[in-house]
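[INFO] parsing input record for Probable membrane transporter protein
[DEBUG] input buffer:
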Amino acid sequence: MTQLILLALVGLAAQLVDGGLGMAYGVTTTTLLLALGTNPAAASATVHLAEIGTTLASGLSHWRFGNVDWKVVLRIGVPGAVGAFAGATVLSSLDTEVARPLTSGILLALGVYILVRFATSAPRADRLGQPLRRRFLSPLGLFAGFLDATGGGGWGPVGTPALLASGRMEPRKVVGSIDASEFLVALSASLGFLLALSSQGVNLTWVLALLAGGVVAAPLAAYLVRVVPTRILGVSVGGIILLTNSRTLLRSDLIDAPDTTRILVYITVLAVWVLALAYVVNDHVRNSSPAVAPIDAPEEDDAKTPA
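[DEBUG] output buffer:
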């Protein structure tokens, strides 16, 4: 029972982050399932089954708050679904001992990307309102969908920064459109996993726990996307993903690093994370503080007081 409550809380927290950033639900929840000992294909299948419900709730919530561009959803979501089905098929065919470090490596790279992306820059908006072309969205969706299924996450970490970097959409519409289109990706990936694995290794109780937490958080996340400092949230999530997946990777049979190496890596990752978080918090506080007008010096009287 304790494990189910933990999964529901993780699903809730992950959806709050995903709804605010347009990424990290799959990366966060897959990281937890791998840490619990689930094989990579079953972990990704579990997460994607839960995401069918969470992404539907999230997409509807974002639509309710006016955060969705449906043209972008279709142009990136359909190729994403194709890529996700292919990725699910590939991951299901890999041996567990090969798949676990591969998946952790992908998640680790995504964690680095998220951390660096949100620590170093804010979204640009110099070309706001210009249309996004299909020749940009289709390959992006195909790649992000494939990565999402093989790594247990990747749709948001790839799609959201790419759309933000284009400068052609408001950040809230980028997040809403990515979350809404992820429903197609989750549905397609789940179909691929079920065809390849049947229900082998997939714990439906875990699916329901993750789903319950995510559905509860979805409406709140769609609202918070307007007010939460996304850079602080992004760096926080990136650090957690880095720390957890570096542990999984260092303990895998492929590397099997000695204890001293593991401790050094953990300390380094933690130090980088804390420094990045401190920098972003300080930058946010500095930029959000109202400018204080200089206090004028008191005027001197023209007439001097006689001695």
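[INFO] The chain has one domain: 2-286.
[INFO] shutting down worker
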